[in-house]
């Protein structure tokens, strides 16, 4: 497992064609409070996009909308050209049937700040639960894949452990393996190292660097780890007040931000 950083920027995936995620005029209100408005951007297949910005600027809400943990109050999110929660037949907003949403949802994996492992299951069971019960894989096939993924995240010897027996970094590596076990096309990473002791951050970012290098999974990443953002992202977007303030290649935006607000934000997290 490599935790080394590199100066090489990832080269951008081919653009053109159907975006894997399209945000179209997305709006999200909680009650009377507007958290996101007029949000428009695309994620290309294989593209890794990092969202940065001050606390409360709406970054986590964006990931939760894609994961259908929150519902839109306006606009559309399209996954591979399919509407996530609404269709626009006859220009009407039509709620999709749960089955249609579930089919799209299977393509999306998420890793949370607080791991969210099932405490009463072993590491292996945590990873095989959804492949068996959601994808209908047989147990042997799911177990084989889980062991392979545990080896990849450096936890080949912990398959029988319970989450309570693991360090935070180990729990997060299990959560990454669990998300990958669903063979996602899209991986959402929500401040996955924020709850970790500083000495455990490197092992988790090392695993994610390998995932970025070895797969073509599209990623939406929320992180305060700017070196990681620089190393793995094709694009960084700075959010403020629920809107995109500026966006660009990581080296351009992080080394040479155009907005004072971005400069101040980057200085504040150094
Ligand atoms: P960030 O990830 O950039 O810190 P969030 O997306 O978590 O921002 O939050 C954006 C805003 O939405 C914040 O003001 C937050 O208080 C509000 N918010 C998030 N979730 C809820 C909720 N379930 N109910 C009410 N307000 C919420």
From TrEMBL:
Segments traversing the membrane = none
Keywords assigned by UniProt, alphabetized: Amino-acid transport, ATP-binding, Cell membrane, Membrane, Nucleotide-binding, Transport
**Keyword hit for Transport:** yes
Composition bias of kind Polar residues appears in 1-17
Where would I find the ABC transporter domain in this sequence? Answer: 21-266
Task: Name the PROSITE patterns for this protein.
Answer: ABC_TRANSPORTER_1 (PS00211), ABC_TRANSPORTER_2 (PS50893)
Quick check: keyword Lipoprotein in the entry? Answer: no
Segments for region (Disordered): 1-20
Query: SUPFAM superfamilies given for it?
Result: P-loop containing nucleoside triphosphate hydrolases
> Where does the record place it?
Cell membrane
* Membrane topology field: Peripheral membrane protein
Output the SMART domains linked to this UniProt entry: AAA
Q: Which family does it belong to?
A: Belongs to the ABC transporter superfamily.
Family matches, as PANTHER family: AMINO ACID IMPORT ATP-BINDING PROTEIN (PTHR43166), GLUTAMATE_ASPARTATE IMPORT ATP-BINDING PROTEIN GLTL (PTHR43166:SF9)
NCBIfam families named among the record's database cross-references: ectoine_ehuA
Q: What is this protein called?
A: Ectoine/hydroxyectoine ABC transporter ATP-binding protein EhuA
Q: Which organism is it from?
A: Janibacter alittae
- Taxonomic placement: Bacteria, Bacillati, Actinomycetota, Actinomycetes, Micrococcales
């Amino acid at each position: 497992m490599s935790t080394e950083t590199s100066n090489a920027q990832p080269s951008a995936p081919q653009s053109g064609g159907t975006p894997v995620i399209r945000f179209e005029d997305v709006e999200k209100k909680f009650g009377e409070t507007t958290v996101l408005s007029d949000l428009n951007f695309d994620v290309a297949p294989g593209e890794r996009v990092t969202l940065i910005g001050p606390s409360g600027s709406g970054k986590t809400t964006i990931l939760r909308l894609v994961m259908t943990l929150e519902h839109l109050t306006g606009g559309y999110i399209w996954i591979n050209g399919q509407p996530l929660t609404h269709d626009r037949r006859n220009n009407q907003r039509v709620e999709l049937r749960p089955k249609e949403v579930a089919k799209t949802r299977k393509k999306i994996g998420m890793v949370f700040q607080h791991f969210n492992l099932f405490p009463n299951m072993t590491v292996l069971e945590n990873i095989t639960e959804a492949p068996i019960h959601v994808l209908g894989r047989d147990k042997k096939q799911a177990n084989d894949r889980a062991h392979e993924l545990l080896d990849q995240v450096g936890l080949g010897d912990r398959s029988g452990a319970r989450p309570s027996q693991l360090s935070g970094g180990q729990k997060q590596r299990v959560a990454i393996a669990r998300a990958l076990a669903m063979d996602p096309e899209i991986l959402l990473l929500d401040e996955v190292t924020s709850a970790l002791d500083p000495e455990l951050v490197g092992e988790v970012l090392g695993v994610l660097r390998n995932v970025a290098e070895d797969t073509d999974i599209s990623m939406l990443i929320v992180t305060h780890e700017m070196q990681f953002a620089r190393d793995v992202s094709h694009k960084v977007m700075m959010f403020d007040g629920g809107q995109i303030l500026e966006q660009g290649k990581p080296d351009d935006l992080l080394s040479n931000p155009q907005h004072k607000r971005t400069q101040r934000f980057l200085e504040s997290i150094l």
